[in-house]
Amino acid sequence: MKQEILAKELNTTQQSLSYYENQEGLDEILFAQLAQGMGVSPEILRNFNMKSPTFNIQEMRDSSQAIYNYNFSPIDKIVEQTAKLEKLYEDILKVEREKIELLTNTNKALQSLIEELKR
């Protein structure tokens, strides 16, 4: 989120946000206001880690307004899906090799049968 957008949301200036960003710590009220302006809870903002990005998706369902949180690391998901794809490719390759072997053996058997019939 750009500072200008957040500044408008919080009714402050971009310079103030830049100042806050460079501070070692913020009081809890200001921190909660910044988190609310970003649309996240203070806990999510407090636990945010740039080295391990986590997506937090909240869904509002029906009028019950139940909140479902899904936390996942996109890098972990990519690695997981890549491993699954590797396994699928290995399985496909194995089946193709078995098919080639079966066709080769069938071809050899047919060639032997043809040679016998010629005699």
UniProtKB/TrEMBL annotation:
Residues 78-113 form a coiled coil. PROSITE patterns: HTH_CROC1. The keyword Coiled coil applies. Keywords: Coiled coil. Residues 1-45 form the HTH cro/C1-type domain. GO terms for molecular function: DNA binding. Gene3D superfamilies: lambda repressor-like DNA-binding domains. It comes from the Bacteria. This is HTH cro/C1-type domain-containing protein. It comes from Pedobacter steynii.
